[in-house]
Amino acid sequence: MTRIADQPADNTSDTRALVLAGARVVTPDGVWDGASVTVERGRIAEVRPAPGDPGAPEEHGAVDLSGHWLVPGFVDLHVHGGGGASFSAGTAEEALRVVATHRAHGSTTLVASTVTGALDDLAAQAGALSELVEQGDLAGLHFEGPFIAENRCGAHDPTLLRDPDPADVRKLVEAARGTARMVTLAPERPGGLDSVRLLRDLGVIAAVGHTDASYEVTRRAVDAGATVATHLFNAMPQLAHRAPGPIAALLEDERVTVELINDGTHLHPSVLALAFRSAGADRVALITDAMGAAGMGDGSYPLGPLRVEVLDGVARITDAGTPPGTGAIAGSTLTLDRAFQRSVTVDGLPVAEVSRSLSGTPARLLGVADRVGSIKAGKDADLVVLDADFELVGVVRKGEWVVRP
Ligand SMILES: [Zn+2]
Q: pLDDT value at position 331?
């Protein structure tokens, strides 16, 4: 193609265009049936809606995706592990295994989540992981804990929890050397609201989660600058008719994006649908909250300093005296392609809305929507191919096949 010849040679990518033709393409302007997407030098060069126009892509050896969906690569805001590896290990080797596992399931952009640990350990993990952010393998870091509520700590080690003292919050953010994107905290703990304000001023997302906050305290946290609900419904007081708690405060406020884990275990389909209808796809970010067992089978896995047993795909904390299958749910074994499939085929949500919640909404929240999160000319060519049953069959990241259909 003539446009290519005008550009300088590039030894990192094929200079020929990749053309993906015939799919139902989910674009910001709607679903385009039979559209073609041209990829050049890692970017989307063109999205052409109508088939059969002169110079149609078939002439250039297009990949025929008839009968398939083409959706933007997924953006996971909250993930701890996968492929038997964990970000908490604090090594590049394990972190890259997590990244590769989720990338093969369509998550082309990933924020690495740590779990509660000693501050010095978390600072060391952040230092190691920040290099992978600088390299472009990760989109940032998320500290989940240690500033969370003891009675809502879920799979976090209760002996290592602490108040969100702004000095400690600042220490962790600084250890990440500009790569911290989000901190989950319980705003009712001493220092909670001051820490939310600090994070807002530092340009880091303050997320309310693993919290025992009331409706009123949660509203104050949002007024102070909190913009995310960490896995809404899970690890917080439930919605009650005279005590609406954090769920109502987070769900009703247009400044807040709510994370939801749609793995069939964390949320009843009716609750997922309620949240989706209430907040809308532009305020819902579907996440995995996955731990090491994602992309693996049942078995025993570490989660930070704790151990987790996975039985029938459900991860639970095990400790002495806990009968199998009864411990606290400890993250998920979800991948975002499964979340997509489930949201459409089980929950009956519209494909375009599910896609927004998996890509556009989290990308905007992270401030990277100029590069990723939608299928549009000029964006990175991060694309997922799904078959008619919404099974993942292909993944492209920055124009390179990760999974080839
Ligand atoms: Zn988590």
A: 81
